[in-house]
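User: Hi! I'm working on a homework problem where we have to compare a predicted structure to a textbook description. Could you give me the structure for the chain below?
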Amino acid sequence: MKNRLIALLICLTIASSSLYSQANNISTTSKWGQQIFLSDVNGRAFENKYADVSGSAYLYPNFKFATIILKDGRTYNNVQARLNLVEHEVNFIASNGEQGYIGKGMVTSILFNDTTKDGVNANIFQTGFSPIDNQSAIHFYQVLVNGKISLLKSINKNIEERLNELSGEKSKEFAQRENLYVLNEGSLKRVKKDSDFFLSTMANQKEAINQYIRTNKLNFKNEEQLKKLVEFYNSL
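Assistant: Happy to help. Predicted structure tokens:
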């Protein structure tokens, strides 16, 4: 099911211009893309709860255009949105220009097109995975690799209080923590960044994986190299 959703998101990105006027009979406007209202998504009005906290609660501080798929299958394209990594919910700009939050647990997938110096990257985030490490089914994971084995990244933020030992003043700031997971046959496992973990996880191709690790002098702390390792396994 998750593989199909990821494939759908990719197709939506490629063909978004034609889908704007077709998906779910949702009308569009030139300014806001597909119209979306708080009432459509069991939403609530925006409230800034973090005015006294340094940093940002969001994946990207600024709104980016996104494709959003809800749990009931409805799809919204070209919506200005951002992902709250403290509450794990989607903040969006409604068609009337007001900000709101989509009801928690309603979003299955969200895709952001992130423009970098190397081009446009499609960053896909999904929910609905089995609970692990105090993360529930509503937590978003970034899909780094999708296939027989999927490589996922968990990005969580929480508020930490700091004490200035000189002045005695207290301040709050966002702390970000990241972990990698593999999804294999429906089961999530947190990645241990060593060869034993991957040789065990990919035991049915142990010889080929061991050879790949030796040939490429794999650095298990390098995310890009781990992505290539999982992609190699999926190609076998």
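For your comparison, note the following. The helical segments are 2-14, 16-19, 195-201, 206-216, 223-235. The chain has five helices and 14 strands. Good luck with the assignment!
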